[in-house]
């Protein structure tokens, strides 16, 4: 992604020829990108503080409850929903648009599609 930011045509997927034009435009004249950047940082900080506080409260409350499964399920369901939605979307995409029948290879391809982004991002750090 960083290399494509120096590309004359970043949406082409080919990073050549290289240029600094995008960065010149970014810092020239009005700095219209500062307000959205500040809003994004403020949102990230607020969400991190609130989610940390909520997770701490839930973590402290779970051992005290007689039936913690309902509260635990309510907070864990958000971990599974994105995977389920993407899995169903991939299934519909494979069958409707690509005509791929479901089976072992399509399951492996779907898992690869889901896991690749995590491996790709983790290896770039």
Quick structural gist:
The chain has 125 residues and is an all-alpha fold. 69% of the residues lie in helices and 0% in strands.
What does this structure look like?
This protein has 4 helices and no strands. The chain has helices at 21-27, 34-61, 69-98, 104-124. The longest helix has 30 residues, at 69-98. 0% of the residues are buried.
Contiguous low-pLDDT stretches (5 residues minimum) are none
Number-wise, the strands total 0
* Span of the ends, CA to CA: 13 Å
Task: Please report which band the strand proportion falls in: under 5%, 5-15%, 15-25%, 25-35%, 35-45% or over 45%.
Answer: under 5%
Task: Briefly note the structural class of the backbone.
Answer: mainly alpha
Shape: flat
Tally of individual helices: 4
Average pLDDT reading: 79
Q: What percent of residues adopt helix (DSSP H or I)? A: 55-70%
Main sheet: strands, sense, barrel: none
Quaternary: single chain
- Helix and strand pattern: HHHH
Radius of gyration: 22 Å
Write the layout of secondary structure elements.
Elements: H1 21-27, H2 34-61, H3 69-98, H4 104-124
List keywords for this structure.
mainly alpha
């Amino acid at each position: 992604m960083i290399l494509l930011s120096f590309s004359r045509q970043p949406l082409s997927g080919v990073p050549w020829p290289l240029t600094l034009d995008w960065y010149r435009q970014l810092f020239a004249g009005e700095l219209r990108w500062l307000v959205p950047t500040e809003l994004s940082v403020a949102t990230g900080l607020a969400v991190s503080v609130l989610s940390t506080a909520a997770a701490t409260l839930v973590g402290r409350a779970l051992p005290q409850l007689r039936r913690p499964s309902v509260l635990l399920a309510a907070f864990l369901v958000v971990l599974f929903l994105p995977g389920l939605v993407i899995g169903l979307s991939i299934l519909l995409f494979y069958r409707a648009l690509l005509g791929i029948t479901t089976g072992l290879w399509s399951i492996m391809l779907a898992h690869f599609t889901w896991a690749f982004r995590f491996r790709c991002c983790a290896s770039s750090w």
